[in-house]
Amino acid sequence: MTSIYKKEILELLPHREPMLLIDELHEIKKLTSATAVLNVTKESFFVQGHFPGQPVMPGVLIVEAFGQAAAALTAHGLDRSTYENKLVFLMGVEKARFRNPVIPDCKLLLKIEAIRSHGKVWKYKGEAFVNEIKMADAIWSATIVNKK
């Protein structure tokens, strides 16, 4: 199985700091599944204000990390000409559940799976873990669109 790191992720995704949320992508099964790594640190941009004195990663950013991991998985599996000059937009989120707070100084593992694709629309599911404890899970859909 393949692994990719930040430099390669930057070639696949248009996201840049501070909004690039995934650091690595491992166990890649082409267009099927992967495990992303997000190192949540005290320096993470959201820590200062969410919440002072008791920082927690916002659930919406966990969902965003799921989406970025799925976009990287998909772009990695497609021919470059298929995703070049394209963006992946989140279309909908179903059944998102936040089970435990994600706090700084942890490695958040995002296990994602493509459920189905129909043309430019993809559906995924994912689970987020810290030290084998489930922190969140969701099902979401996204579409590939042309850059303007």
How would you describe this structure to a colleague?
This protein has about 150 residues and is α+β, with helices and mostly antiparallel strands. About 20% of the residues lie in helices and about 45% in strands. β2 and β3 (about 35-40) form a beta hairpin. The longest helix is centred in the middle third of the chain and has 19 residues, at about 60-75. The radius of gyration is 15 Å and the shape is globular. It starts with a strand and ends with a strand.
CATH class: Alpha Beta
In CATH terms, what is the architecture?
Roll
CATH topology: Thiol Ester Dehydrase, Chain A
User: Could you tell me the strand content as a percent range?
Assistant: over 45%
Beta strand count: 7
How many structural domains are formed by the residues? 1
Q: Estimate the mean pLDDT confidence.
A: 94
Radius of gyration: 15 Å
Q: Give the fraction of residues assigned to helices.
A: 10-25%
What spatial order of strands do you see in the largest sheet?
1-2-3-5-6-7-4
Can you count the helices? Answer: 3
Task: List strands and helices in order, with pairings.
Blueprint lengths: L1 E4 H7 L11 E6 L3 E8 L18 H19 L2 H4 L2 E13 L7 E13 L2 E10 L2 E14 L2
Antiparallel strand pairs: 1-2, 2-3, 3-5, 4-7, 5-6, 6-7
Give the gist of this structure.
The protein has 148 residues and is of the alpha+beta class.
Index terms:
single chain; 148 residues; alpha+beta; Thiol Ester Dehydrase, Chain A; seven-stranded antiparallel sheet; 3 helices; 20% helix; globular
